[in-house]
Every structure is written in structure tokens, then in C-alpha cells.
Amino acid sequence: MKNIFYIVLAFTFAFFAKGERPNIIIILSDDAGYGDFGYMGSTEFKTPHIDEMVSEGIQFSNAYVTACMCAPSRAGLITGKYQQKLGFHLNLPHNYNHSFGLRTSQKTLADYMKNAGYKTAAFGKWHLGHEKRYHPNQRGFDYFYGFAAGHRSYFSLEEPDKSTLAYRMERNGEYLEEADDFYMSDALTSDAISFISKNKEEEFLIYLAFSAVHYPMHAKEQDLKVFEDIKDTNRKILAAMTKSMDDNVGRLRQALKDMDLEENTLLWFLNDNGGAYNNFSDNGVLRGGKGGLSEGGIRVPTAIVWPGKLSSGIKMNHPISSLDIAPSILAMAGEQVLDLDGKDILSPIIQKNDFTERDLFWASQEIYAMRRSNYKLIRVDFSKGPKFWLFDLELDPGEQVNLAESAKSRVQEMNQSLNKWIRTHKSADFRKNDYLKDSEKEMRLREWMKFN
């Protein structure tokens, strides 16, 4: 049955002949707060270009990533698979003496799209391994401009940081000097626009992974001046960093218009995980943030824009996942991939069909979560036995009321499905620093979920 399903997907977009298929641009922000965009309700931050983009497409109010932190979230997005199956369930170590990275035997979205005849390019933060074997040019991307690390300065590097090669800006493996007026968000966008200009006669896939608004807190002076009414210094800097990213989304979209590519380019915008504590982001009504499996750690702003092909101004409540990016895009390219964990969500949208229900799962060390319909289960594996939290997200998006005691049969049923999912990846080559004392788990859970 599964094979039949994917064969159907392969023909869903058969009317797109080579040369007529859409260009694809995935825009990924970093550590942004759920409530820190204008279209998400912010009255402090100014994001008119992103707001306009979202208004011209479909906004998803129940969109998730596969992990509550940067690197594993990217692994899930770029492969279309739960990263636990790849032994990539934790962030990479902060030092760059390690040899961790995305398993080289695993194909990426770029590999598949390159096979389909697309030109492929990645810009910005990579964070899937800094050794040559993990380099974007080895993982299906024809072109790469960015850096390998999980964060770095937004301005040109000081001499001490240049010694860490993972921080250095590079183009296709060649390390670059950075101009005095270098600012990361501007540089990434300028290079992406240059790539589009040189490849506008071909179909292309672009993965534009802004480092904004990840720590460190670096903003341009002219952007800070726009937010003089924000008294909190940290929030002011974050607002300015967000504005710069927004300005560059506007620049990118204007370039597409100028090159007559707007109507044949699909943009998929999302954030990599919940807003972080160290960049002072605001996750709005959601509980917790980056690093935790509460909604504030894994539910992210998401929108898809494809002028003339997708309806505009639509808000969809059906849960989707970053796992869905790969199969959705591959379906349009006519590629048949049988073993992905996501599903094509573009076909039912275009054909105005209903989505099928499915469970979503998460794991972070010995804390687990799953969503089924409106219900979210969180489980912590303490030594004396698991402890459960159950929330009805339709009625309680802030996860304030634990229903586990009053709905024990639902907890048991969902937990059985969770255990079945865990068994699908239990043999993966995990890093072996997963085990915490109960007191450490309790402390981490309280911090991540912000319990009183």
C-alpha cells in the first residue's frame, strides 16, 4: 500500500514538464520567537516583507519541526526523515575537534533534486558537520556560500575567531576574506540573488538558512535606530536583527520579480526551532522555548507562497511537519522516494483534498512527545517509571492543564504508539551522553516547559 501511495505521488505533478517545474526556495530563520513577527501578532517588531509574503500564500498555525534545537532540526528537514533514525538527535558539540555530522550514506533533498535536474545551492548556516565529507558540496549542493558552524559573528570575524575554520565564510570550500562592512544577513541574500541571476534559465533549489536571529546579538546601527522606543536593550537588538532579515526577504522577492521569476518560484518559510532564551525571543502564547518539547520549542511560524498556484490569505490548522518539505518538493519534481517519514502536503492543497490524519513524534534524550489530532503527550523516563503530561492543544495551546490523570486510556493508547515509534530507531548510532539523573531531568523539564 505504501508503494502505491508514493507511485501516485510521483505522478501528481506529471503536468510539470522539465523546464516548467517551479523553482524552490526554502527560507529558514534561526531561533526566532513564535510571536516575533508582525503577522504572528507582534506589535514591537516590524516585518512588513515577511508579513506581505505570508499574506500572499498559506499560513500554517500548527506547523512543527522535528527537533527543539538547531542541528537535528536541520537534519530532519534536509533528509525528510526523523533524525533519530540517523543517530542525529542532539546538537553538535560546540568545539570543532569532533567528527560528528549527518550520516554520509543518507541522501539529502539536494541529492534528490539534483538527480531530478535542478541546480542546487545552499546559503548560510550549515551545522550538519564541518569535515569535508559532510560539506554541502558533498551532500548534493552544487553551490555553497556560508559557514559550517552553528553560530558566529554577524560582522566580519576578529582574528581569534578566524582560527576556527567552521566560523569562516566560504564559497564552495574556499575560505573568504570578509569586507569591513560585512553583515551576515545582507551577504547571504546578495549571494543568493547573484546565484539566481546566473541560473535563472534553469530550475533551481535554494536552501537559504539565515543565521538570524541566533545569538550573538549583533545588529546594524541603522536598524537599531528604528526601535528607539523599545526600552529593553536585548529586545531592541533582536528587533533590529529581525528587521534586517525581513529587509533581505524583501530584497530577495523583489529580485525574483525583477527577473520575471516570481510566479514560477515556490517559497517555503519556517523557523528551525522555538525561540531561544539567550536571544530574548518571545514565543507568544506557547509554553517554553528552544531545547524543550513543549510547544514553544517545536511549533514554528510556517508559510508556503506560490503566486498563481496556491490560494492567498489562507490559514490552515492541520498539523504539518518540516518532514513534509522534502516529499512535497520531490513530488513536484517527479521524483519517487519511498522511505521518507514526511508526506506531500502540496498535492492535497492544490487539488483541494482533505489531509489524512497522522501522528507526529519527538525525542530529546529521555524526554519524548507525540501529537495525535488535537492531543499532545509528553513523557519523561524517570528511573521510577515514566511521568506523563497530556494536553488538548485546541483548547489549551499554552499547555497549562495536564489531562493525564483524567484521560488514562488515551495516555496508554498514545504511549503504545510512541513506544512503537521509538523501536524504529532504537538501534541508531546515538551519541552516548543521553543519561541524566532524575533530579537533572526534573530541573531541565521545569526549565524547558517553564512549570511553576
Automatic annotation (TrEMBL):
Domain of life: Bacteria
Keyword terms: Hydrolase
InterPro entries documented for this protein: Alkaline_phosphatase_core_sf, Sulfatase, Sulfatase_N
Signal peptide residue numbers: none
Domain called Sulfatase N-terminal: residue spans: 22-334
Similarity field: Belongs to the sulfatase family.
Protein name: Sulfatase-like hydrolase/transferase
Species assigned in the record: Lentisphaera profundi
